[in-house]
């Protein structure tokens, strides 16, 4: 799977976004170390706080299918005009990534399109993060 292919799957996932309150639609595609892909979208709620981000949807789908080793995730987000923004993961999603990913090697691809994207490691977006190792 190439970076561009992963972004394409995130764009597809974004089409399923349920965002009637923010009108901000996000799609993500998470790749396991063995090359399997799990996509996700944001799922909002009238009570607001139960809202789940696209990234966490992808992680929870994967973990609930028995996957726990991840290589990278691609994220695309933007409003209903179809114009994509660089949509960097929220703090809660970064914390979920800390639970399952190696901060120095896990890659976060923040994309506007298959041609325009930035790549970060989790360590770059979550410096000095708290994770499972802290409890050992
Ligand atoms: N959202 C995501 O799904 N991922 C992000 O990285 C940022 C925000 C969602 C949550 C909410 O449904 C909407 O975007 C506006 O915050």
Layout of strands and helices, then pairs:
Blueprint: H1 3-14, E1 25-32, E2 37-41, H2 54-64, E3 70-78, E4 84-85, H3 91-100, E5 107-111, E6 117-121, H4 122-125
Parallel strand pairs: 3-5
Antiparallel strand pairs: 1-2, 1-3, 3-4, 5-6
The chain binds tetrahydrodeoxyuridine.
- Spell out the helices and strands N to C: HEEHEEHEEH
Radius of gyration: 14 Å
Low-confidence segments, given as residue ranges, are none
Extended strand count:
6
Distance between the termini: 34 Å
* Main sheet characteristics: 6 strands, mixed
Beta-strand portion reads 25-35%
Percent helix: 25-40%
Quaternary state of the chains? single chain
Global mean pLDDT: 98
Helix/strand-derived class? alpha+beta
Number of helices: 4
Shape: globular
Name every ligand kind in the structure.
Answer: tetrahydrodeoxyuridine
Which labels suit this protein?
136 residues; alpha+beta; six-stranded mixed β-sheet; globular; binds tetrahydrodeoxyuridine
In brief, what are we looking at here?
The chain is α+β, with helices and mostly antiparallel strands.
Q: Can you describe what's shown?
A:
This protein is α+β, with helices and mostly antiparallel strands. Strands 1, 2, 3, 4, 5 and 6 form a 6-stranded mixed β-sheet that branches. The protein is built from 4 helices and 6 strands; from the N terminus they run H-E-E-H-E-E-H-E-E-H. The radius of gyration is 14 Å and the shape is globular. 27% of the residues lie in helices and 25% in strands. The chain has helices at 3-14, 54-64, 91-100, 122-125, and strands at 25-32, 37-41, 70-78, 84-85, 107-111, 117-121. Tetrahydrodeoxyuridine is lined by residues 19, 22, 24, 26, 42, 44, 51, 53-55, 75, 77, 87, 89-90, 93.
